[in-house]
Amino acid sequence: METLEAIKKRVSVRGYLDKQITDADLDKVLKAGMQAPIGRGKYYDMHITVIQNKDFLEKIDNLTDRHIFYKAPTLIIVSARDDGHGLDKENSACVMENMTLAATDLGLGSIYLNLVIGLIKENKDILKELHLEEGFVPVAALGIGYTDGEFEPKDHIIEVTYIK
């Protein structure tokens, strides 16, 4: 799939099959995330956690009364160490976008999740189970998996102002 096609086809998927993604596809998604541009080249200030353990996923899901990652069989959490330059969110977003596009290219569904991060940060037990080094904080989460349908690309319109 060409890059622009993957960008157009990428949608937030809110329904997944109960089937784990392959290790080969997971590896491709993670490598795409690792190729993201990181401000100041501080890749050592980034950390990726992959959760595929059903019991642990259920424990996270039970933090609220709804399925907060839509039963995606793989949850990827991007954590960062804030070095004082305020690039942790921006760098995490770059990693996430690369992973969502790779997932789309591989025919996987994905969803960028926000609520999950807030809940994990508030729950010391789950936060501890992520085994993050001192100073790292979860910043972004991605659910990925096989979907039960095709999704039509959409043309979104955002107003553009040209100043030449």
TrEMBL record:
Pfam families: TM1586_NiRdase (PF14512)
Coiled-coil ranges per UniProt: none
Top-level division of the source organism's lineage: Bacteria
SUPFAM superfamilies: FMN-dependent nitroreductase-like (SSF55469)
Cofactors that this protein relies on: FMN
GO terms assigned for molecular function: oxidoreductase activity
Keywords: Flavoprotein, FMN, Oxidoreductase
InterPro entries: Nitroreductase-like, TM1586_NiRdase
Domain (Putative nitroreductase TM1586) ranges: 3-150
Similarity remark: Belongs to the nitroreductase family.
Protein name: Nitroreductase family protein
Protein species of origin: Candidatus Coprosoma intestinipullorum
